[in-house]
């Protein structure tokens, strides 16, 4: 019985329909199987710089003046803020051309041209600085990822000194979309419509609770000092060995 089963097994192995063709992965032979090569990819330089900067900010001790930009506005309040800013977007070049043509047609027809002041959000770091120093700004919005950070690192302190509400939000590109630019370091609201005064007041109250009221705490809070997984495991191992030695002693 066993001999017959062994003979049948050899017959099935010799069947040419199911011939075994082992693959060899040497040079110039079978194609290598697909593997996850993410670890070996040479990423673009700007990606490497982004990742290195993030790791450095985690590892090194970050002064409070820089660390305050890691505390950004919460999502719900940010949504309300950008809805309000969207109402005061400056006009595009095409919209300005259309408006000026309409005014020129009115003047040519002998009518009075509309010269009412447009209420728009202000941008440009020098312009915003003048508005804050003259206390004309009702709200200042600062991006948290400005590079170099020295461009805006002093702006929160200036806003606190002048009593102007301010907040820090994520992404300078998100601020840039409000004013039809790629990026914007900061925005400021100066003049608004009457129907938006109450929403702005409630928005400023929520913003002050997160920034102006916590200014003393943020001025004393250092950031960074977070080590990697390997370093944490090494420190934990060393502490455990020290605890065992103390226990034995």
3D architecture notes:
By secondary structure, the protein is of the alpha+beta class. About 50% of the residues lie in helices and about 10% in strands. It has helices spanning about 1-15, 45-60, 65, 75-85, 95-110, 125-135, 155-160, 170-180, 195-210, 215-220, 230-249, and strands at about 60, 120-125, 140-145, 165-170, 185-190, 225. It has a 4-stranded mixed β-sheet with strand order 2-5-3-4. Helix 4 runs antiparallel to helix 9 (about 195-210). It is flat and about 100 Å long. The model has no long low-confidence stretch (mean pLDDT about 90).
Layout of helices and strands:
Elements: H1 2-13, H2 45-59, E1 61-62, H3 64-67, H4 75-86, H5 93-108, E2 122-123, H6 125-133, E3 139-143, H7 155-162, E4 166-169, H8 172-178, E5 186-189, H9 197-210, H10 215-220, E6 223-224, H11 229-248
């Amino acid at each position: 019985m066993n001999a017959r089963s062994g003979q049948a097994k050899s017959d099935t192995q010799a069947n040419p329909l199911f011939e075994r063709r082992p693959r060899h992965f040497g040079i110039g032979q079978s194609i290598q199987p697909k593997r996850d090569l993410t670890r070996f990819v040479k990423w673009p330089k700007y990606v490497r710089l982004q990742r290195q900067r993030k790791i450095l900010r985690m590892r090194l001790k970050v002064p409070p003046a820089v660390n305050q930009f890691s505390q950004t506005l919460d999502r719900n309040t940010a949504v309300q803020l950008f809805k309000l800013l969207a109402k005061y977007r400056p006009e595009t070049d095409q919209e300005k051309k259309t408006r000026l043509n309409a005014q020129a047609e009115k003047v040519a027809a002998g009518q009075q041209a509309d010269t009412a002041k447009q209420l728009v959000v202000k941008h440009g770091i020098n312009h915003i600085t003048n508005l804050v120093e003259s206390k004309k700004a009702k709200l200042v919005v600062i991006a948290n990822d400005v590079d170099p950070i020295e461009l805006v690192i002093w702006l929160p302190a200036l806003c606190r000194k002048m009593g102007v509400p301010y907040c820090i939000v994520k992404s300078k590109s998100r601020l840039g979309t409000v004013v039809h630019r790629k990026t914007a370091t900061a925005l400021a609201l100066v003049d608004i419509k009457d129907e938006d005064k109450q929403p702005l007041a409630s928005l400023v109250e929520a913003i002050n609770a997160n920034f102006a009221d916590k200014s003393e705490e943020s001025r004393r809070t250092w950031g960074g000092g977070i080590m990697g997984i390997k370093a944490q495991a090494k420190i934990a191992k060393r502490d455990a060995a020290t605890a065992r030695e103390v226990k034995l002693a």
